[in-house]
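Page 37, continued from 36.
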């Protein structure tokens, strides 16, 4: 295995991009190996490392199919559904609580509190 070329921060030649830069261009690495490495020195720790890919070998990002959109919507709905009361909380339920805030803290809210106005409370 050959060693990767290492460039200092902001000194990489044209034609290379990080994964995020490829995504911003609408591209993906497309199975290619890492072509180079970018290092940003730090004072008290080891350098930050970013891997670079060749832009000319990158492929376009695959389009989302209707099935993928449906699967993503189903996964997001599952993250919003409270396992205790089986209702849509309207937000992603934090894993630290494991349930919506109305189920996690049923007695903490004073009557008529604005932050407690959820579909769980009857008015």
């Amino acid at each position: 295995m050959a060693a990767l070329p290492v460039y200092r921060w902001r000194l990489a030649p044209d034609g290379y991009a990080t994964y995020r830069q490829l995504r911003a261009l609408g591209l993906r690495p497309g199975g290619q190996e890492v072509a180079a490495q970018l290092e940003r020195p730090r004072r008290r720790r080891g350098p930050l490392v970013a891997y670079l890919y060749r832009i000319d070998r990158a492929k376009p990002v695959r389009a989302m199919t209707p099935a993928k959109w449906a699967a993503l919507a189903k996964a997001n709905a599952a993250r919003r559904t409270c396992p205790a009361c089986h209702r849509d909380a309207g937000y992603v339920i934090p894993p630290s609580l494991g349930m919506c805030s109305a189920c996690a803290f049923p007695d903490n809210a004073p009557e008529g509190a604005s932050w407690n106005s959820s579909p769980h409370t009857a008015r």
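The longest strand covers residues 48-54. Flag for discussion at group meeting. Strands lie at 6-8, 16-17, 27-28, 36-40, 48-54, 59-60.
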